[in-house]
Amino acid sequence: MAELTEQEQIRRNSLNELKKLGINPYPAALYEVNVKSSEILENYPKDNTLYQHISIAGRIMSRRIMGAASFVELQDAYGRIQLYIKRDEICPDEDKTLYNTVFKRLLDIGDIIGVTGYVFVTQMGETSIHVQSLTVLSKSLRPLPIVKEKDGHVYDAFSDPEQRYRMRYVDLIVNPHVRETFIKRAKIVNTMRDYFNEQGYLEVETPILQSIPGGAAARPFITHHNALDIDLYLRIANELYLKRLIVGGYAGVYEFARDFRNEGMDRTHNPEFTCMEIYVAYKDYNWMMTFVENMLSRIAMTLHGTTKVKVWGNEIDFGGPFRRAPMCDLIKEATGYDVLPMDEQQLRDTCKALNIEVDETMGKGKLIDAIFGEKCEPNLIQPTFVTDYPIEMSPLCKRHRNNPNLTERFELFVNGKELANAYSELNDPIDQLGRFQEQLRLSEKGDDEAMFIDMDFVRALEFGMPPTSGMGMGIDRLVMMMTDEQSIQDVLLFPQMKPEKKAPVTTDEEFVNHGVSAEWVPVLRKAGINTLSALKEANPNKLYNDLNGLRKKNKLEMPPLKKEELEKWMA
Question: Which residue among 94, 231, 500, 523 is least enclosed by CB atoms within 10 Å?
Fold first, then answer.
């Protein structure tokens, strides 16, 4: 276990002293809370007869101790509020230990307490709680980063992404805007769920472990089922299971699914992500476009009270109706090339002429997708339905009713990024089998994202699936857009990270061999110096003062450190 810092040791000492006083720093009993900080601040002093017998709990975020009376900033799940704590109020008898010892000396910023009392307004005009009783609920053993705010400016912010993502619990404590992002995420999901349920569609759950990873073109994660002694895949999509349920007779089904794709990570992609997929019988992709417009308009209004939302520097209007444009028309508009009649070699030549990188494993679908991604996607800022994809790009989609070389598919692009993908679903089992076999051909060419053949799904279609429209939407990306977050990691509570590297620690013997006096090694560690490199990089004047300060504070029986000696250590 790592050496404790001075602050961590002080908190553990305080913990032991609390126990000696007969105070359980981690009590098991329910603590009754009857009010939220936000309610008090919203309603008082509009009606100053309210909140005269309140009980609230939260974390100490700051305090000002002024003799027999003190102020504390308490943070609960809903905001922050000031407490006024008076010694003789919480210690009405002669024993003042609770205030003089427990509150003033043994409690720290980050500790969780419960208080009862009444609400009033201070002479400075701040709505506060006059505390009548105080209970210790949880002793914090690690100090929080102290984030200061003055005149609207934040100082010493806990903003390093690596630390924030690894210690999301600390991020949520000290950065209220982060908590708000995840509250908005929940509102987005609940708004979608309400919208679907109002239409009478059924929320379902489908398998995560699958023998065939179908429903998308992606590289899967592989795991092993010990009891069955078979390899299984973590699902890349839930599409084929949901369509089986449409075959089974449901009018509409949807799922908020955790999907897994063993691919790259960047600002808008994470290997584990949330995708919502919905399938509705007797509908087509034209109906689905209107359905999506109404849904996104509703989400924007719920979150922002307007359909106009700031997304990465652009004002996006989710009010609809959105632009609708065929894919090949957009490519021709951007490049001058009509890619629809081209064969594979002509597409390769076109990519070369447009300076677009391709490889030998790419078939017609991926070649067209590469051109579109490079030349068209970045220009689609306002919501745009890109429709009528070439058939090679959509192995699960129904052929276009007017052109058999196209499919009835759309993707919704917002601010240059794909947000949704939808089809008039393919329900011809013979056509579906042929499409699967074409994907097998691509797989044999080396395309490790080509779809597997799912013969059970083909069998389901042979029993008859009604005309159906399906749509999938990435929830993480939707949340990014609706909250104006720049990175997918900022909308995932616990994003995937590489294992944390253990900081190297110089041994006591190595310090001594370097020239550090043995008696000063423990003091160096108390000052946070655990490696020779940290010693050499430290500020000499600050370290000199810190070390001699620790010697004095801990009453160490050794002479003060001389600057010349420290300079030798740091050489």
Answer: 94
